[in-house]
Amino acid sequence: MKIAVFCSANKNIDPDFFTMTEEMGKWMAENGHDLVFGGCNSGLMDCIGKAVKAHGGRTIGVVPTLVERGGRTFPDLDIEIPCDNLSDRKDLMLAQSDIFVALPGGIGTLDEIFTIAAAHTIGYHHKMVILYNMKGFWNSTIALLDDMAEKSMIRGDWRDVIEVADNLAELTKLCEG
């Protein structure tokens, strides 16, 4: 399976997020899952790439030209897919991936989650997004989605499109289930 991972490229974040990301990368590689990610060499992006590679897995980086020109490309990509901008990146990641996992991240990660989820709700694809809720990171987003659903701003149950995993065991079950 090709698992797309959305996550932070920041370095100065909770060290536990790095540990949990390494565990996920190890699981992915040991179970033959390819990593599809933004292809950056910093933060959790770098961490997941290194963890997958360290355990014999394959990395597919979808790298905007701006990132490449800035010298911020993950150095050990098996496949590099260049793209023009972040919109192209999302489209290419959608085409390349079977499932999407959101680790802790910022505005870019939110954009990626909701772009993929919105396309699912309209019927462009049927691929799931999983919020890997490390240390409750996504709790406020989950509360926001629940509030929006309660106010009838979301058709149906948002959990039909976005699932939540609070630990690696739950994540692996959702990915393989």
TrEMBL record:
Q: Is Hydrolase included in the keywords of this UniProt record?
A: yes
**Matches recorded under Pfam families:** Lysine_decarbox
- The enzyme's main class, written as a single word, is hydrolase
Q: Which Enzyme Commission number(s) are listed?
A: 3.2.2.n1
Please give the Gene3D superfamilies that the UniProt record associates with this protein.
3.40.50.450
Top-rank lineage group of the source organism: Bacteria
Catalytic activity annotation: AMP + H2O = D-ribose 5-phosphate + adenine
Does rRNA processing show up as a keyword for this record? no
Record keywords, A-Z: Cytokinin biosynthesis, Hydrolase
UniProt-listed InterPro entries: LOG, LOG_fam
Q: Which family does it belong to?
A: Belongs to the LOG family.
Protein's recorded name: Cytokinin riboside 5'-monophosphate phosphoribohydrolase
- Which organism's genome codes for this protein? Segatella sinensis
